UniProtKB/TrEMBL annotation:
Domain called HTH arsR-type: residue spans: 6-99
Keywords: DNA-binding, Transcription, Transcription regulation
InterPro entries: ArsR-like_HTH, HTH_ArsR_DNA-bd_dom, Metal_resp_trans_reg, WH-like_DNA-bd_sf, WH_DNA-bd_sf
Protein name: Transcriptional regulator
Organism: Sporosarcina luteola
Alphabetical list of SMART domains matching this protein: HTH_ARSR (SM00418)
Statement: the UniProt record of this protein carries the keyword Transcription regulation: yes
PANTHER family per record: ARSENICAL RESISTANCE OPERON REPRESSOR ARSR-RELATED, HTH-TYPE TRANSCRIPTIONAL REPRESSOR CZRA
Gene3D superfamilies: Winged helix-like DNA-binding domain superfamily/Winged helix DNA-binding domain
Coiled coil: none
A GO term for molecular function: DNA-binding transcription factor activity
Amino acid sequence: MSKQHLDEETLFVVSQTFKALSDPTRIRILNLLCEEEYSVNDIADTLNLSQSSVSHQLRFLKNLRLVKFRREGTTLYYSEDDHHVMNLLKQAIEHATHT
């Protein structure tokens, strides 16, 4: 791997990605969204979280383009939007659970 000087924007994006992956609630949400899309209510129910907490975390993840949503009527359905970060998350989980 060649040495590469990182510009400020790249440094910021990388640090924000790791910030996103440093929060247990966001990890739980992203891990869930690796499998299929979910509504905010479904995420809250599945992970036993408040709807406002889930909405707050999804807004953070959407701003980083780690999740995307589609609207069906008044319901928003969220899914993963960055397979690179999802692969990084999966690798981290595999590393943590490897015995």
